[in-house]
Amino acid sequence: MAPKARKTGEPLEAEETLQAVIIADSYEDRFLPFTLERPRCLLTLANMPLIEYTCEWLASVGVEEVFVCSGNHTDQVETYLNNSRWTKDTSPFSVEVVRSTEPSVGDAMRDLDQKGLMKGDFICIYGDVIANIPFDAALKAHRARREKSKNAIMTMVLREAGDYHRTKDQHHRRCFVIDPETDRCIHYEQVRPRTSPRLNIPEEVLKDHVEIDMREDLIDCGIDIYTLDALAQWSDSFDWKLPRQDFVHGVLQDFETFGRTIHTHIISEGYAARVNTLRAFDAATQDVVSRWAFPYCPDTNILGDQSYQLQKGNVYKEDGVVLARSSTVSHGSVLGKATSIGEGSVITNSVIGRRCVIGRRVEIENAYIWDDARVGDDTVIETAVIANEASVGKKCHVKRGALVSYGVRIANGVTVEENTRITRFKRKRGYDNDEVCQGVTDSKVVGEGGEGFRLELDEDEEDMHEAMLAGTQEMNITTDGDDISDFESGDEEDEYAHSREPTSRSGSFTSIASDESGETKRDHAKFHREASDSIFDGLQREQDPDHIQLELQAQRLTENAEDNQIRRAVAVAFSRRIANLIEGGRTAKEAVATAILPNQRLIKACVKEASEQAEFLLFLQTDSVHRAQGSKVLLHVAFVLAGEDMVDGDGLEMWWEDPRSVATEELKKVRAETKPVVDQMAGESEDDDEDEEEDDDDE
Amino acid sequence: MPSSVVGQTPSLTTFLKSLKQNDIENSIELFISLLKRRQIKNSRPCAIATTHLLLRVVAEPKRKWDAQKLIARVRHVGRRLIAAQPREMAVGNIVRRVLGVIREVAERDEDPLTDSEISGSASPITGEFQRPALPTRFSEFSPLHGAAAMPHNMHSGRPGTADSMAMEFGGTPQRPALLSTNASYAGQGPPGTSLFSILQHPQGRSPMATPPPGTQSPVTGPSPSRRAIAGEIPEKLDIKAEVIDGIKELQDELDVVDNQIAESALDHIHSNEIILTHTSSQTVQKFLLTDARKRKFTLFHAEAYPNNHEATHATILNGAQGEDDSDERWKPLTSLGITVILIPDTAVFALMSRINKVILAPHAVLANGSLIAAAGASTIALAAKTHHVPVVVLSGVYKLSPVYPFDTDELIEYGDPSKVVPFEEAEFTDKVDIVNPLYDWVDCDLVDLYITNLGGHAPSYLYRIVADHYRMEDIDLNAKQDAVVKKG
User: How confident is the model over B364-381, as pLDDT tens digits?
Assistant: First the structure.
């Protein structure tokens, strides 16, 4: 047994220090609108910032050096850490904030690798993990494996959680195929929501392993033990973004070539969970309040200035809480310092921050009210989040799933509908980075004299869409329905899969034509993202197509982009816009018409020749694959494009015959419905388009 | 044994090792966070860690302590430690014991001077400094147990009574020092036993205790001179060294406490008795082992599910492995030919009629003779009461706390419910509240005998031991340090 090396003293003997990387940036928008103004890791869960839980756990396993990778809101993270006990002399580990502007976990990892900060095996953890699991065993097992084989490059720590568990990601089912003998993860797949639970297990896997476990009952708590080799892997594959879908999947696929293995460590005691969705936020809060995460419960008073006391029924009160005699605080509630609750108010299963003022006869159930919020008399708040300094007027009704962001004021007598996200700020997509700017108050939403507006999720409307569907599925399962599940959405892996899939897929398409080096490919990805965002933004705001065109041109010049990239960006932007409209309640046909017809010039500008048209369609098709009603949209788009002469018969035919458009099963499926249009157009390309009217009726 | 080189989970062992390298503030913070994370838990590890930490605090290099500064410093550290985990009462106990040591050293240093300076005057007498007069404390303690938690209010609340009470009790012969552990400090000053001085003793105590504001204490007069003396003392006497010796003795006490308790085993357990015990307490095991060498008895061992059953099973099977805090090892009872029967906690009542004696190990013992012990102890004690089976509690003095249990609920810690229902049982976590209390509170009338390292005591006698070990002024560490402020 070696003595522990101290952070201050020189390392004894030839010891390594245990290092950890906290990925503080979520690179995603699950917590909009809150994450507009604050990084996710500083959101409070049971009145303590999430990153504190993570740091506590790291300290409890004896980590001595921590690097915090942060992209968004780095300043806030840094300020917070600088004022916290983690940067004091007495901190059990040293903390360094690594700034990176790149927008994914993969980029952050590559950044780390470049800087060469890591000295040996390290723990990689998200800034939103709550855990109390013992870690010695995992580390020991990992080291033992490393001793045996240098190819065991990573260990994932997974928590058993049974079939259905509130803390487990419900609709993103992660399947791990594990060889129980070596704990090796031999296949990883994420079963997409709303698809049949089918795994594509490679044949070799079945051949090579005598025994395999297929497990879907694991909470992926986002705690991994990396080796330097694993970090190098990230660098080798510049387009990997997500630790699971890209990294794990990629490494496993390359097993034949490189022989690198990824292992799992499955724990069956202790608590570990990621707060990566609002639903997880809800579940984790309940877990913390009902002491599953012991000792990380409010009454442990982990932060020096806390003074929570546990009372019967898991009610935690801090010093200086003022309760009116006739108020009731029941079951699973947490009340912060100097909060006052008026006469006749009933608080159930809710977390209320510090210095909140709750009026009289207020009913609050399953709600999360953060510091300094105010709630007026006779208001009812159901499962909702009211952020810092927000105020809700008298006689209001905040319905299930509403999110009221920082500083929003809701006037008296307003009903906040279910799943509304109200904020004062919105994100403006810029070329280089997003700006957050103040939005215009919408008095329809917040009432006269209120402040704030309804946030429409411009960025990942697709995601939202999916979330809603998933939400309804969820509701069927949980009949009691007290979860914030409606706006629950997938996790970043999935989201990124969305925005990424076209990237990589068309990336591979373009690479057929041109030999791109990795560097340019990366540039292209960046250009694509920015361009499609800005086009989409323009479409969304129904700007003049010339204007959008101009903007696009400017971007193109700065990035020195090629034509096919522009086509791709345009295609993706339209596809998103259409999906957005569909989600807004339009039918596919209407949506296509609304999106495309006023903006014909935009498409015409980039699509001239038949080959270009074919490519454009291909991009559209690729993008439609993962959209709701994708095949229908594609049909209508093809129809409209043909009808308005943006695409001619040759183009359609070329597209149809292109081997790339039938490259996968999904692609085939999505284009199946479009067949009649193509047949017709291809056949009658000379005849002009007389029969289109009836064709339309057919649909 | 952990073979890993890096990233050892912090524990008592790593804490003690790190003490040597870390500076003091780091060590304090580390201990606080270990307490909060429950990585150091239970009375003995807490007590050991606290003594080591306080030793470091006192021995802080480049600091010259005078008594008051040292007291203030230790109090400050103590408050932080107690706030970190108020339910580990051993921490507070040790802090108070150390404060007592410091005060004693300070007084010892002061006494000769005082004597020479104001001999014959109505000055306090050294004997009272030495061992704060019990009768007075008795008077403050017994009628109102509550005084334990707020002695200062009590004191200042009724300035007159302290005097009159003291007069009343003044005549009672002072008890000889009954402490073995503290004996080393006792008897070093000249015993002052003149009748006059005895009558004067309430004032005599006042330099160390809070002077009652209302009382015309003669000492408040000469206090300036006293202060001057106090200032000189550090030069003359090495308070630091003395206190360090005192703390080391405390550490020794912690080391031998189990053996001392075990010494009386033969007086309590007789041949062919049937004993019931609970949890995997080291103290109890040693006690039983000592007896088992001479006699045969039968042991029923309640397994203390769900928080301690694994440790209990291991103890029954293997004895101590020497893994934890000490390198001590011992054989399991079964290897000495003792019949050990493991029973679930629920079977206790059914078996109680066959049992001759219940032996419990507490987590903490409170001033009024009640105790906090692992969950299940209350059931056992009640069952024993019903069957008129004597309950014997084995407890080191370090577990004895001057805290009076006003709210017994507050003293009980609630742990991780996954011990009761596994986390995987999603239905449970969603629909049922699961509660896992770690401790039980057992009232004093359910206990028949306490065996400490000082010997056996009735629960009603514990207040005396409390009074002997803790200074009135240290009982509430959060109270304003009037005395200290005035003096220092």
Answer: 999 889 999 999 999 999
